[in-house]
Amino acid sequence: MPLLFPLEDASDVRCRYKPDVIKGDMDSIRTEVLDFYMSLGTKIIDKSHDQDTTDLHKCVTYIRDVAPNLDKSNLCILVAGALGGRFDHEMGNLNVICRFSSLRIVLLSDDSLIHLLPRTHRHEIHIQTSVEGPHCGLIPLGMPSTSSTTTGLQWDLNNTEMRFGGLISTSNIVTGDKVMVQSDSDLLWTISIKKL
Q1: Fewer CB within 10 Å, N- or C-terminus of the chain?
Q2: CB-based burial of residue 140 (10 Å sphere; 0-12 exposed, 13-18 middle, 19+ buried)?
Q3: Model pTM score
Q4: What domains does the chain contain, in order, with CATH numbers?
């Protein structure tokens, strides 16, 4: 967070934007960071005994369970720094968005954002052209798509079959501020983020 506010004192920024909860297996957090946030009242949930789920999985479970009566259709979880590191971690993060497909989870990096388009819906994606695009892609996940259709892309799909080992929609380009997608398979939507 301090890098986002370079003219402010780093300690002030860390105190102002402290997490409510730190949950995970605690293998990648430095002791002094943990102690700092504990001293500010951040709740620490150590799940080091659970090695079958990732830290992201643990956190999404917490968010889902902390407010069971919350209207999940309005919930959006933004995961910063979810891409661009170790490939196995990236795949684990993709697995989480599939596992929690009823929640809207957006994975964000310096270069792109990704979210799941479940096959159960026709999707209308509104493009914030000032910060995202023009490059985008649609990637079938888990199983091939025998029929995917889009509007709003330079190379629209028209009942197109997509699968790994065959065609996937990469390096496509959004042509406006709205893209429509319908598929018989879950798809990953990815779009580039513009450098500010």
Answers
A1: C
A2: buried
A3: 0.84
A4: 1-52 (no CATH), 60-110 (no CATH), 111-196 (2.60.120.320)
